[in-house]
Amino acid sequence: MPSGHTIRLTGAEVPQTVAALSKRLTQLGYEVEPGDGMVLLVDESADGGIDFEIDAHDPAEFAAEKILDILEERGWVELDDTAVSAEEEAEITDRLRRLGYIE
């Protein structure tokens, strides 16, 4: 079994947050193994982990981004804040169009 950093989640929407966090880490190029209430960020030179309590008011995607910020602070991941996926760009464009900012 691979080793790495274990991110243990408790609180609201744990399965959804595990899925969202795993997806984002994979998009960023990291190898992950999602589990029941946890995500293993595979890194053979690392061990240890964190516990994260998901706020009941945080949607899964938002909670995943909060966790990513913590992982970046610890130096476990590097986030490229300038990259926007094609899906995110389409969503932003659609919102701007609906709000009347663009045609």
Produce the secondary structure layout:
Layout: E1 4-11, H1 14-27, E2 32-35, E3 38-42, E4 48-54, H2 60-73, H3 86-98
Parallel strand pairs: 1-4
Antiparallel strand pairs: 1-3, 2-3
Helix pairs in contact: 1-2
Mean pLDDT: 89
Quickly give the structural class: alpha+beta
- H/E element sequence: EHEEEHH
- Assign a percent range to the helix content: 25-40%
Instruction: Choose one word for the global shape.
Output: globular
Number of strands: 4
- The number of helical elements comes to 3
Largest sheet: 4 strands, mixed
Task: Tell me the span between the first and last alpha carbons.
Answer: 52 Å
Tally of discrete structural domains: 1
Unreliable sequence segments: none
Strand-residue proportion:
15-25%
Gyration radius, rounded: 15 Å
Oligomeric state of the chains in view: single chain
What topology, given as strand order, has the largest sheet?
2-3-1-4
Give the gist of this structure:
This protein is an alpha+beta fold. Helices cover 40% and strands 23% of the residues. The protein has one domain.
Notes on the protein architecture:
- This protein is an alpha+beta fold and 103 residues long.
- The protein has one domain.
- The chain is 40% helix and 23% strand.
- The protein contains 3 helices and 4 strands; from the N terminus they run βαβββαα.
- A hairpin with a 2-residue loop joins β2 and β3.
